[in-house]
Amino acid sequence: MLKSVLLCLFLLALRCPAEEMGAQLFQTVCAACHGPKGEGKDDLKTPSIANLPEWYVLRQLTNFHEGRRGENGQVDPQGALMAAIAKTLKPEQMKAVANHVQSLALVVPKERTLEGAQVQAGQELFYERCMECHRYNASGEQLFGSPPLVGRQGWYLLAQLKKFKSLHRGNAKGDDKGAKMVMMTTLFIEDEQVMKNLVGYILTLNPEPIKP
């Protein structure tokens, strides 16, 4: 797969105008896993990325590229694949892809509930510990480097909380924003039930698309 990605990147660099680079790269490199609209694929465990802010997508691509995320393929096989792909991209290509991802129309997940979640308890925890950075509607805040949580699949949010708590994400040197999430999950999330409660509440919120 990586050989074909590298070949496509080479061909794109030869023939692609700068303004089209992001869209071309997305369809060539990203769409097979994340879907042509960035909607994600549950069977591949790839999240919806459509309409995520450019600054967040670029930060995560950089983290993958620089080895701050996805380095342990045994516990994070999807992250390891992302890291391998990100390492083939140049900085200007990552920037172009990030801009294109933000331009994609928001795709709301089909599943808006999480089995076993106690939504009221999740709401209380969200108000107490998450809202300050991720805002009242979980739409994120660039000032704090906090991404939108709404519009993402419940299974993905749950998986990321588990990775933060188990130090499989956010524990690498240089990932300051991730380190804050490690601290929050360590201090305030006791177990998987608490994670489910939190995610269950987030899924009830209505996403607000990022305007161009």
Characteristic key phrases:
212 residues; mainly alpha; Cytochrome Bc1 Complex, Chain D, domain 2; 2 domains; 56% helix; 0% strand
Please give a structural write-up.
The structure is a single chain. By secondary structure, this protein is mostly helical. The protein has two domains: 2-103, Cytochrome c-like domain (Cytochrome Bc1 Complex, Chain D, domain 2, Orthogonal Bundle); 119-202, Cytochrome Bc1 Complex, Chain D, domain 2 (Orthogonal Bundle), CATH 1.10.760. Helix content is 56%, strand content 0%. The two termini are 33 Å apart. The longest helix has 17 residues, at 18-34. Helix 2 crosses helix 5, helix 7 (154-165) packs across helix 8 and helix 7 runs antiparallel to helix 9. This is Cytochrome c domain-containing protein. InterPro entries: Cyt_c-like_dom, Cyt_c-like_dom_sf, Cytochrome_c_Oxidase_Subunit. Residues 1-18 form the signal peptide.
What's the total helix number?
A: 9
CATH topology description of the largest domain:
Cytochrome Bc1 Complex, Chain D, domain 2
Query: Secondary-structure element order, as H and E?
Result: HHHHHHHHH
Euclidean distance between termini CA atoms: 33 Å
Content of β-strand: under 5%
- What is the arithmetic mean of pLDDT? 93
Please tell me the total number of domains. 2
Instruction: Name the structural class.
Output: mainly alpha
CATH superfamily of the largest domain: Cytochrome c-like domain
Radius of gyration over C-alpha positions, nearest whole angstrom = 17 Å
Share in helix: 55-70%
Largest sheet: none
Write the CATH architecture name of the largest domain: Orthogonal Bundle
